Amino acid sequence: MSQTLDTPRTPAPAQAPLDAAALAALHGLSVSNARPSLPQYVRQLWARRHFITAFATAKLTAQYSQAKLGQLWQVMTPLLNAAVYYLIFGLLLGTSRGIDDFVPFLVTGVFVFTFTQSSVMAGTRAVSGNLGLVRALHFPRASLPIALCLQQLQQLLFSMAALAVILFCFGVPPTWSWFLVVPALALQFAFNTGLALVMARLGSKTPDLAQLMPFVMRTWMYASGVMFSIKQVLPEHGVPQFAKVLLECNPAAVYIDLVRYALIDSFDAGQLPYGVGAMWALALGWAVALCVGGFIYFWKAEETYGRG
Amino acid sequence: MADTLIETPTAPELDEIHEVDETDGETRTPTVVADGVDIVYRVTGTGAGRGSATAALNRIIRRKKHAARGMREVHAVRNVSFTAYKGEAIGLIGTNGSGKSTLLRAVAGLLPTENGRIYTNGQPSLLGVNAAMMNDLTGERNVVLGGLAMGMSREQVRERYDDIVEFSGINEKGDFITLPMRTYSSGMAARLRFSIAAAKDHDVLLIDEALATGDRKFQKRSEARIRELRATAGTVFLVSHNNKSIRDTCDRVLWLERGELRMDGPTAEVLQEYEKFTGAGK
Fold first, then answer.
1. CB–CB of A11 and B30 under 8 A?
2. Mapping DSSP to helix (H, G, I), strand (E, B) and coil, where does residue B138 land?
3. Closest in B28, B124, B257 to A32, CB measured
4. I want to staple B167 with a disulfide (CB 3.0 to 4.6 A). Which of A276, B15, B195, B213 is the partner?
5. pLDDT tens, residue by residue, A227-270
6. Cβ–Cβ below 8 Å for B44 and A308
7. Domain count within chain B
8. Is-contact A161 A168, C-beta < 8 A?
9. Using CA atoms, how far apart are residues A145 and A115, in angstroms rounded to an integer?
10. For the ABC transmembrane type-2 domain, which residue ranges apply (chain A) (predicted)?
11. Helical pair A251-263 and A209-223, crossing angle rounded to 10 deg
12. Reduced to 3 states, what is the DSSP secondary structure of residue B20?
């Protein structure tokens, strides 16, 4: 087939007197695909808040819609998860030594850590797993990791309801301090979202991270005192001081300890590695640092998402 | 094509500067200006077997290096320039793989250009709402989700919900809008998608082969809706392999072949050449 090209016939005589850039400028056209400024970006994101919440809820509902038990799995999944950890670490390995109320201690740890874990995992795939959406529609891309973290937050609410029942069954009395869970989890949510934004950008460039992250997250979980008490176990094994500080200040451990402190009666201030005020300061510091840093880091690559 | 492009003096947009064309005195407002656009895809995963794992590692380690091994460049669009005006419906034709969809995505600002620039009026939207929809959710919830994804407010979605459902005709044969989308036939799903996307007023609407699905009756209705959008809003771009639907809706056609703009002109003229080229006749 012959491929001789006709010279493109230009029907728009307007191109003759003006060049494209000048013509565009004259009529106030803007370059498509330019990154908005940070305040603009925040405004755009705020304008899309209904999309973000609708997307999160839709994801959550779609998750179990094919299962026979349907939304019951929202509560069953965390309960089964806790049961497995109890079987292994409580009954078989006996890491419960020296911990009062081991089951509430463990289950709280598992649920709180799962919140961060699933947020990070979802964040890693937020852009790379939704390329179709990114390539088809215009919206601030940060909507995706934020919506997915919101979905995890909704999931956490189901876990918390299950936790309340477990605490009650194991004779932990409800007190006013239970309400401290709300600020603790709010800070954790901010932390998770920031981390998910960072992971979303990394994951969009290197999708392989999604394969790697489960191992990283599992290591992090074992290091965060989910199924043992960092304070009691580490000195027995002669762990150097800097490692102990590192483990105790790691954000997952901080949020877990704060929630335990709020919920479990026997987990008093003596169990915390630092004073109550210091713990809250740490929780706030991590949340603000990740939330702001992660957001800016994600925004910096806004125009590149969905490429390639 | 001149008569559709003349702006009456009573046009509501008073703040717009109109360019007076010296040759035939028309007043036209450009909505999309493409200036020497080149688009290059970089494709990984073409590594032909040998040492592909190490090649991958290599790629990750020195990502900054240009065109690492196992990476291929595909030059999808080459030096395309055109200016689209308000009130135009422009068809994009060309054989498969000629860069039509790529060019649309770039106009929508969803693909970065390698060289050249694309200037647009407002935010062109690609009729791609399907990406936001979830098969496990009911049609009802998808209408809301899709509307929000396109940037409509909750109130707008609520207002237009009935129109969207009615236009899609999903409920003509029973209460199907409350069923999960996975139970829909592909035609039904496509109709719902188009209905959602067309519910919003767009400055520049880009449609990629959306009219290929659905029965003839629905196609007619969609074409009418496109003409309506054109009248109220601005510019419509339509990618299609259906020459008839191009002829029915467009007044100007861009013909892309191998990423190059081969012809740009009134529908009848370009289609005639194109049909000669593809040997399709009528």
1. no
2. strand
3. B124
4. B195
5. 888 877 777 777 788 888 888 889 999 999 999 999 988 888 77
6. yes
7. 1
8. no
9. 14
10. 69-301
11. 50
12. strand
Res. B11: pLDDT tops 60: no
Q: Which tokens hold the place of A157?
A: 């609410």
Residue B75 resides in a domain? yes
Q: Do B83 and A55 touch (CB under 8 A)?
A: no
pTM for the complete prediction? 0.79
How many Cβ contacts (< 8 angstroms) between chains A and B? 176
Which single residue is written with the structure tokens 């999808």? B76
Q: Are A108 and A263 in contact (CB under 8 A)?
A: yes
Residue type, B152: M
- B173 belongs to a structural domain: no
Per-residue confidence (pLDDT) for residue A152, from 0 to 100: 94
pLDDT digits (tens, 9 = 90+) for B207-240: 876 666 667 788 788 888 877 777 776 788 888 8
The per-residue pLDDT for A147 is 96
What's the DSSP call for residue A226? S
Structural domain span for residue B107: 2-124+202-278
Tokens of A293: 């840093």
Contact present, B143 and B225 (Cβ < 8 Å): no
At B245, list the tokens: 């639907």
CATH number, position B110: 3.40.50.300
Average pLDDT over residues B252-278: 89
What's the DSSP call for residue A267?
Answer: S
Map out the domains of chain A as residue ranges: 35-304
By Cβ distance, the residue of A11, A54, A307 closest to B148 is A54
Question: In whole angstroms, what is the distance from residue B50 CA to residue B187 CA?
Answer: 43
Output the six-digit token pair for A77: 């999944």
Task: Compute the residue count for chain B.
Answer: 282
The answer to whether residue B170 is domain-embedded is no
Question: Which residue do the tokens 């919506």 mark?
Answer: A147
For residue B14, the 8-state DSSP code is -
In a domain, B45, yes or no: yes
Both tokens of A272, joined, read 């915390």
For residue A45 the two structure tokens come to 């994101």
> For the stretch A209-227, what's the b/e string if a residue is b when 16 or more beta carbons lie within 10 angstroms of its beta carbon?
beeebeeebeebbeebbbb
CB contact (8 A) between residue A33 and residue B113: yes
Token duo for residue B242: 């259906």
